Amino acid sequence: MDLNINGRNILVTGAAKGIGRGIALAAANEGANIVLHYQSSKKEALETVKEIERHGVQVVLVKGDLASIDDVQNMKKDISQGIGEIDAIVNNAGFAQYKSFFKYQPGEWKREIDVCLLGVMNLAHTFIPDMMEKKGGKFINIIGDSARTGDRNFIISAAARSGTISFLKSLAQEAGRNNIQCNTVALGLIDQGQSFDPDVLEKIMKQYPLKRLGNIDDISGSILFLLSPWSDWITGQVLSINGGHSMLG
Ligand SMILES: NC(=O)c1ccc[n+]([C@@H]2O[C@H](COP(=O)([O-])OP(=O)(O)OC[C@H]3O[C@@H](n4cnc5c(N)ncnc54)[C@H](OP(=O)(O)O)[C@@H]3O)[C@@H](O)[C@H]2O)c1
Question: Which of 64, 109, 150, 195 has its CA 20 to 30 A from that of 5?
């Protein structure tokens, strides 16, 4: 199946390494031009740029703190000069602290909310109007499954990202008439070579009907589908890629 994203300009945030890098490489492999965003991982970003270039597509590197509207607007200026307009955004960047609510100092939760919730608004406000004008575009927001299920140790990022689910549904309604699709992808635990204590891993596996953690290929296939015209009649939805960890109707 041809995904028909050849020549599309796709912004992937937080893509220097990890899941974002995997998504950027998978899209480049399909012929998409990549705007690779990073915040602090410059060395890894430059390495990923080199790998993307091997696919013979255009790649533009942009830097910014998504919690800052000034940074996001400056990213847009750099993108305009480097590649023109964006056709799709995969917002993969995130900041989540793993601890109980009562281990936070008052106010320590603000940064997570700024990145995980306000960052999504900053991206949408900056980039969606141009997509609406040209009557086409895709906005995909990656979150953790905890935003749907709750998780006592991801209590702040889960709350912030549960807000993004609602935000993307409303945005899908606002921008749908201009042929913009806005969807959320909720992830379970992804194997990125972390070392787990065997007992902890066994406990985690009990929560996964498919009895394994996810990997980056498990994610990138679905993201490519959501970036492609094959998903043009899907909007305002939440797709869980989670090995069955939660099964929400
Ligand atoms: N890994 C998992 O098992 C899992 C499970 C559920 C959900 N998720 C979500 O999936 C996404 C990717 O996960 P990951 O484990 O590959 O990476 P990650 O380390 O959680 O985050 C990806 C990138 O986000 C960027 N970032 C953080 N704060 C930022 C800010 N204020 N502005 C701009 N960028 C910022 C960082 O870029 P720099 O390094 O350049 O600073 C980081 O590399 C994340 O949103 C994560 O929460 C992951």
Answer: 64
Neighbours of 202 (CB within 10 A): 10
* pLDDT at position 220: 98
CATH entry, 9-241, from 2.20.25.530, 3.20.20.60, 3.90.79.10, 3.40.50.720: 3.40.50.720
CA atoms lying within 13 Å on the CB side of residue 88: 31
Average pLDDT over every residue of 35-42: 98
Which of 42, 75, 92, 121 is the best mutation target for the ligand 1 pocket, counting ligand atoms within 8 Å of the beta carbon and taking the most?
A: 92
Question: Do you know the residue count of the chain?
Answer: 249
Q: Give residue ranges with CB within 6 A of ligand 1.
A: 13-14, 16-20, 38-41, 65-67, 92-96, 115, 142, 144, 187, 189-190, 192
In angstroms, the first-to-last Cα distance of the chain is 29
Supply the pTM of this predicted model: 0.98
Question: Where do the structural domains in the chain lie, given as residue ranges?
Answer: 9-241
| Token duo for residue 84 | 């023109």
Q: Other C-beta atoms within 10 Å of 94: how many?
A: 22
Query: How far apart, in whole angstroms, are the C-alpha atoms of residue 248 and residue 238?
Result: 10
Tell me if 188 sits within 8 A of 156, measured CB to CB.
Answer: no
Report the distance separating Cα 102 and Cα 80, nearest Å.
44
From the list 219, 201, 228, the residue with the least C-alpha distance to 22 is 219
